[in-house]
Design brief:
By secondary structure, the chain is mainly alpha-helical. The chain has helices at about 5-15, 20-45, 50-65, 65-90, 100-125, 130-135, 140-170, 185-195, 200-240.
Length: about 240
């Protein structure tokens, strides 16, 4: 049995049509997880009796269960729940005509939020409490202190873990096929099955995801480099006017 190179050259254009779906899942999940994960981290850090425990429970559930289980739970439980709500509110909405991609975005955004929450919690510990106290004593509000002082310092420590989490998200995005969404992996599985070109199909998937993951890693490298340059510039200004 030989390696069917003609399958790869003939199907790569069709496979890349799933690239926008993959990028949509990754970009939307990352964008949604940043504020949600940070708010979760602050909620747990506040150690309020109810909010902190609920936040910790959510993070434990999302990180302690396989991604595929979360996909199936949302995919099979969320539509009936929405149907019930639509019936109670008498809304003329056909829930089962909703694009499955919407359910994918919900699952991946929630899962990524839990991962980012733990990263932000760890990164916040690298910024001493004196920073917040100094900011408040100089007239800044707590949100202003986070935006101008805490978050810029926290992000430098969080960059490497966030890069790893984003790469893991890119790899996990291949699971959206289980929700009938035709992403890169979904198209490869379908086209490979037609001629039993599984070796060639998965080799193509390996190359494409490898390139995408290197791209994500490079983006985070640039972000981390910019943060370090900004910090170095700030330190130079402090020395100049000290």
């Amino acid at each position: 049995m030989g390696f069917n190179l003609a399958y790869i050259t003939g199907s790569i254009g069709q496979v890349l049509r799933g690239l926008p779906i993959t990028l949509t899942v990754v970009l939307f999940s990352t964008a949604a997880a940043f504020p949600l994960g940070f708010l979760l981290a602050l909620l747990i850090r506040k150690r309020s009796r109810i909010g902190s425990r609920l936040g910790a429970l959510f993070v434990s559930f999302m990180r302690g269960t396989p991604m595929i289980v979360q996909i199936y739970v949302v995919y099979f439980s969320l539509p009936p729940g929405l149907v019930f709500i639509a019936e109670q509110l008498k809304l003329p909405v056909d829930v089962y005509k909703i694009n499955p991609l919407a359910f994918c975005l919900v699952v991946f955004a929630l899962n990524t939020s839990a991962v980012f929450c733990e990263i932000f919690r760890s990164a916040l510990h690298t910024v001493g409490p004196a920073q917040m106290e100094a900011a408040l004593s100089n007239g800044l509000t707590e949100p202003q202190a986070y935006r101008r002082i805490i978050i810029p310092q926290m992000m430098e420590a969080a960059c490497a873990p966030l890069a790893n989490a984003s790469i893991e998200l890119m790899k996990n995005s291949s699971l959206v096929f289980y929700m009938t969404v035709m992403d890169i992996m979904g198209i490869i599985k379908t086209t490979a099955a037609e001629g039993y070109n599984y070796l060639e199909g998965y080799t193509l998937a390996w190359v494409i995801y490898l390139v995408l993951c290197y791209g994500v890693e490079f983006i985070w490298f640039l972000i981390e480099k910019r943060l370090k340059n900004r910090k170095a510039g700030g330190n130079l200004m402090e020395k100049r006017y000290a």
